Amino acid sequence: SVGPVFSDGVTMTLAGFLTRRTDFDLSTAYSRGNVGATSSASNRLETYTATARVRRALGRRLALYGEYRYYSYGFGSNVAVVGAIPRTLGRNSAQAGVTLWFPVIRK
What local confidence, expressed as pLDDT, does residue 2 receive? Predict the structure, then answer.
């Protein structure tokens, strides 16, 4: 089926400092709904995401971070999908990097 998506969702975030120089950010989100006006399992759409990040300051303007992400979605059997898009998908990823801060406006 093709049509509008009616959904409900929730998001939660927990963030703070582990030490003066180390912060963390945990977040998750869930959404569940239906495609079209009919509410049934075959028209269902569900998504879920989760992210965890830790960042460590090396100086006033430089930090290193590590991050993990999970994402999944699922479409019911009556939901029209385009081409090779799978009905269900779950993905994991990890990344590390450098964060650099610099002043845009100086006082």
Answer: 67
DSSP letter (8 states) at residue 84: T
Contact 62, 100 (CB under 8 A): yes
Q: What are phi and psi of 5, to 5 degrees?
A: -105, 125
Spans in the chain with pLDDT lower than 70:
1-2
* Cα Dmax for the chain: 59
Reference 36, options 80, 73, 74, 72; nearest CA is: 80
List beta partners, residue 45: 33, 75
What's the pLDDT score for residue 39?
Answer: 77
DSSP string, 10-38: EEEEEEEESSSSEEEEEEEEEEEEEESS-
Cα gap 28→52, rounded to integer Å: 9
